[in-house]
Amino acid sequence: MAILTLTINGEHVSGKDDESLLAIASQHGIRIPTLCHLDGLSDVGACRLCLVEIEGSPKLFPACTTRPQEGMVVSTDTERLRRYRRIIIEFLASEGNHQCAVCVVNNHCELQNLAYETGLTHVSVPYLYPKKDLDATHKDFIIDRNRCVLCTRCVRVCHEVEGAHTWDIAGRGISCEIISDLNQPWGASGSCTSCGKCVLVCPTGALIEKGEAVAEMEKKTDFLRYIVTARQKREWVNVDSDEE
When comparing pLDDT for 174 and 27, which is higher? Predict the structure, then answer.
């Protein structure tokens, strides 16, 4: 592991060579918009909202999966990037049924917040009006695939933190969707532990608790950092039993 020096938005910063540009920027108080990223989960670069410019390259790079290099010059908030992010949010809005006025996470939705932040006031591209399944077979939770943005947070938290791997991705293109247990109804899942972690990390109203009314459900992700940190520090491990 080496310590590197780079420049982000004209500010000289330092970071480890095994960290992402997103992590380094965050450590220095530089915010980069994200949707699929969540501290404690692996990064997959799915949403592309964290794209940044790197001097010397015409390409845009996802900050969550790009490693730093010595002397790298990075820009995170240019007119080009703001335009790209607004387009991405617009496409996400057009691909699903995101009716905020009747959503249980209205005013607590990360997609909605990003639309405000990027200045998206209307959708100028045709709506696709998907007709994907709403699965309410689980006793406690509902998945509405029409509101899913395919961030895969649910897939990763179920696999990496809970260890159940109930969720996965099936299909291609506009037919791509989240499925449970090889496309079985969620309520019939043999692997789901009903922990609710997937519901809490979902950034939209795709995964919700039953019984919540409009604008009532506020999702919290603090538990994830607590669990991951505790495991890394081995706070829940019986050391004596390990040594036997």
Answer: 27
